[in-house]
Amino acid sequence: MYNYPKHLDLFYSHVSSIEPSILLLIFLIIFVVGIIFGRLSNTKKKSKVSIYDNKHYNFSSNKKRKKFEKKINHQKKNRVFYTIRKLFIMIICIFLIFIGFIVLFWAINNFFENGVYKVVFAFSFFVFMSNILSKLCTKTYDN
């Protein structure tokens, strides 16, 4: 066998004692929660006023100017919030990819004896997962 470091050997002994179907169930729950979180966090209202409209906007009163500046300040605060939220979603996506590949390799080794089935399952799972996660991770937050 292979000569693993002690902490990896301990990890493999814990993971190998778990049934592969339980690992798949855990992964599917995490994956679905990640998709739901990604879709819910991508819903935002678009502001009608752009920051760059300030140059081309003629104000008829001081009240309109203050209202416009208030919208711009609120929009700048939202931009920082959306950037932080996008980074958080990217971290969750990377975590889901990592967990997904661990579960994928254990499921392939335990469920499929034939090498052709292993390759087909791994390829189809990789395409499915990369498609879903790329839609989650590359969602743009335009203001």
Blueprint (SSEs and pairs):
Layout: H1 6-16, H2 20-41, H3 62-111, H4 115-137
Describe the overall structure.
The chain has 143 residues and is mainly α. It has one domain (6-137). Helix content is 74%, strand content 0%. The chain contains 4 helices and no strands. It has helices at residues 6-16, 20-41, 62-111, 115-137. The longest helix has 50 residues, at 62-111. The N and C termini lie far apart (55 Å).
Produce a short descriptive summary.
The chain has 4 helices and no strands. The longest helix has 50 residues, at 62-111. With 143 residues, the chain is an all-alpha fold.
Please tell me the overall pLDDT. 65
Shape: rod-shaped
Count, helices: 4
Q: Which regions are unreliable across 5 or more consecutive residues at pLDDT < 50?
A: none
The radius of gyration is 24 Å
The number of distinct structural domains comes to: 1
State the helicity in percent bands: over 70%
Query: Using DSSP, what is the number of strands?
Result: 0
The span between the termini is 55 Å
Task: Give structural attributes.
143 residues, 4 helices, single chain, rod-shaped, mainly alpha
